[in-house]
Backbone:
């Protein structure tokens, strides 16, 4: 088995480790033990789970996930929506990418953006394209984790409405 | 604005909210007072609601036959509830003090000299007073006393009252005697407004070119009387 190798860590026990421990993989293997004589026996199967796989970690939506973000027309567009990162059962299994998806579970069309996709990942704060008009933007966030695991968030909504605090002016006086 | 016309109205300014594209102005209300932001208007029955007139928003009197000043405010509200009061706006309808001013015509004739014996007909012409509003028109002109308020002419008539109004040309009763006639002209306008002119004078004097003639007995070239009698002399004719 080329994927893992035997490794004697301190002389008192034998340890198995991956040849490439950058991979997120579960290794199932057997151990054949031989004594002087020789007597032999095979033990296993045993499983070495390395990194973040469906066997080692699970993800759930953060309890702080913001499902409804109300803002006003004319509000700043920058950093409007902060995506509370999903919770992982392994601390070392974090999201490497978060993307805005439509409520139909496809990536948001580039041609008609509402939120600005992150230019570099991982990021979890999104800006709006504009706040010019009242509208309701429904979307999801698609997270990709180490090991190519993914999680699609519930639907989030950004509701843009008119404030009651705009300055009103008379721009032209006609007598 | 003129009265009695449905076209008379107040064209309101264009109002915009700070977010006019997304949250445009959507309500225009007329109020008789500025009640302050977020407070309800005070209805004003004498004016219409804000109405579309082409590309404009306008307000007009509910009774446009009145000569009246309407002072009003507008409460403007945008989608979302932002609001503000504007004004005061003044809508002047018709002819009344404050909406129009009258003045003597620059060509007003303050002194007309005449000769005794001149024709009396159509002697004095008054160039019509001017008005700052074209729809405020002259109803009548009357010769009045030369006093501060233009009281009705007293004493013997000097100028002949117009037979029909409005008129601005007067005849004299006569030009028999030397005299100076002082008078003013009171002009009555639409809505019974009046304008009193400055003093005008017609001065009637004697000319130096009257034909002279004799009457009675034409004397001889010479007359002869006794001497020593102070009661006799040359008897002249009547001139």
Residues:
């Amino acid at each position: 088995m080329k994927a893992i190798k035997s490794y004697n860590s301190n002389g008192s026990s034998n340890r198995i480790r991956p040849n490439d421990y950058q991979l997120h993989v579960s290794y199932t293997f057997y151990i054949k033990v031989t004594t002087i004589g020789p007597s032999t026996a095979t033990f296993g199967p045993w499983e070495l789970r390395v990194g973040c796989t469906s066997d080692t970690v699970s993800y759930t939506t953060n309890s702080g996930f913001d499902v409804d973000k109300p803002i006003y027309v004319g509000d700043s567009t920058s950093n409007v929506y902060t995506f509370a990162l999903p919770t992982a059962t392994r601390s070392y299994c974090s999201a490497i990418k978060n993307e805005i998806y439509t409520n139909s579970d496809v990536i948001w069309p580039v041609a008609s953006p509402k939120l600005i996709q992150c230019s570099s990942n991982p990021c979890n704060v999104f800006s709006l394209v504009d706040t010019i008009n009242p509208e309701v933007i429904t979307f999801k966030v698609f997270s990709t984790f180490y090991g190519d695991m993914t999680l699609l968030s519930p639907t989030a909504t950004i509701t843009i409405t008119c404030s009651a605090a705009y300055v009103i002016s008379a721009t032209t006086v006609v007598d | 604005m003129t009265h009695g016309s449905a076209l008379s109205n107040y064209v309101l300014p264009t109002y915009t909210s700070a977010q006019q594209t997304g949250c445009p102005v959507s309500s225009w209300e007329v109020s008789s007072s500025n009640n302050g932001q977020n407070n309800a208007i005070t209805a004003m029955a004498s004016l219409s609601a804000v109405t579309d007139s082409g590309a404009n928003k306008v307000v007009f009197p509910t009774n446009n036959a009145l000569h009246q000043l309407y002072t009003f405010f507008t409460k403007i509200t945008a989608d979302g509830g932002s609001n503000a009061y504007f004004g005061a706006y003044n809508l002047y309808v018709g002819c009344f003090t404050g909406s129009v001013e009258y003045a003597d015509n620059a060509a007003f004739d303050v002194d007309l000299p005449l000769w005794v014996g001149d024709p009396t007909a159509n002697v004095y012409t008054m160039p019509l007073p001017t008005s700052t509003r074209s729809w405020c028109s002259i109803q009548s002109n009357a010769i009045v006393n030369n006093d501060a308020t233009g009281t009705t002419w007293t004493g013997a008539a000097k100028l002949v009252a117009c037979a029909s109004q409005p008129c601005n040309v007067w005849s004299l009763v006569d030009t028999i005697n030397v005299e100076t006639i002082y008078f003013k002209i009171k002009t009555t306008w639409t809505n019974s407004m009046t304008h009193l002119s400055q003093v005008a004078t017609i001065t009637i004097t004697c000319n130096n070119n009257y034909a002279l003639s004799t009457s009675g007995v034409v004397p001889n070239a010479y007359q002869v009387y006794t001497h020593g009698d102070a009661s006799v002399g040359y008897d002249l004719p009547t001139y």
Chain A touches chain B at residues 72-74, 131-134, 160-175 (CB under 8 Å). The two ends of chain A are 93 Å apart (CA to CA).
